[in-house]
Amino acid sequence: DGGITQSPKYLFRKEGQNVTLSCEQNLNHDAMYWYRQDPGQGLRLIYYSQIVNDFQKGDIAEGYSVSREKKESFPLTVTSAQKNPTAFYLCASSLLYNTEAFFGQGTRLTVV
Amino acid sequence: GEDVEQSLFLSVREGDSSVINCTYTDSSSTYLYWYKQEPGAGLQLLTYIFSNMDMKQDQRLTVLLNKKDKHLSLRIADTQTGDSAIYFCAERPGNQGGKLIFGQGTELSVKP
């Protein structure tokens, strides 16, 4: 089945560690996005990529890094510089000028 | 700037209609969207409307767009307990590579 897959579903991180969240899609979509969701704040854009080997910062990129080496994959690294990383992270993809963005099921990151 | 606003909560009785409202600021937005999120899950696209339309109907869902006032609404007819979820309004600003700007989400509670 075609779709967008995030892993893991739950992730625990110790303070001071970097962690990487996986996002893979087999929809042949050009664009991929990472959003962060906090209660009562909706979704905020972290990074997005419109083409392989290129990506742009969103509204809250500080403390995060991404790569886009393959069209299918857009991993997000939450670095130790991110002050408050506990949140629900959502990955999405779309054809570049299409109407619909498809979302993964999310990764809940908790700092312990 | 880009901003999307929604009220945070709505409670209705089963069988009633629900109306969820949203305001946005970017007049260049080409598409406006309604997404549904169930607990612990990703976002599911419910419907969208192109900015040159006033209304779109899809089964129990009716979207109304007042472009002059930058106001969008989602009406759910014959609301069921399975409609209980968080509903997000989103706009897609023109010429920004497909990124979406989300509202805070409206939590719809349907009481039997």
Per-chain topology:
The complex is a heterodimer of chains A (112) and B (112).
Chain A: E1 4-7, E2 10-13, E3 19-25, E4 31-37, E5 43-51, E6 54-57, E7 64-66, E8 76-78, E9 87-94, E10 102-103, E11 107-111
Parallel strand pairs in A: 2-11
Antiparallel strand pairs in A: 1-3, 3-8, 4-5, 4-9, 5-6, 7-8, 9-10, 9-11
Chain B: E1 4-6, E2 9-13, E3 18-24, E4 31-37, E5 43-50, E6 55-58, E7 61-66, E8 71-76, E9 85-92, E10 101-102, E11 106-111
Parallel strand pairs in B: 2-11
Antiparallel strand pairs in B: 1-3, 3-8, 4-5, 4-9, 6-7, 7-8, 9-10, 9-11
Can you describe this structure?
The complex is a heterodimer of chains A (112) and B (112). The mean pLDDT of chain A is 92. With 112 residues, chain A is mostly beta strands. Chain A has strands spanning 4-7, 10-13, 19-25, 31-37, 43-51, 54-57, 64-66, 76-78, 87-94, 102-103, 107-111. In chain A, the strands form 2 sheets. In chain A, strands 2, 4, 5, 6, 9, 10 and 11 form a 7-stranded mixed sheet that branches. A 4-stranded antiparallel sheet of chain A has the order 1-3-8-7, with no helix packed on it. By secondary structure, chain B is mainly beta. In chain B, 0% of the residues lie in helices and 55% in strands. Chain B contains no helices and 11 strands. Chain B has strands at 4-6, 9-13, 18-24, 31-37, 43-50, 55-58, 61-66, 71-76, 85-92, 101-102, 106-111. In chain B, strands 2, 4, 5, 9, 10 and 11 form a 6-stranded mixed sheet that branches. Chain B has a 5-stranded antiparallel sheet with strand order 1-3-8-7-6, with no helix packed on it. The N and C termini of chain B lie far apart (41 Å). Chains A and B meet through β4, β5, β9 and β10 of A and β5 and β10 of B.
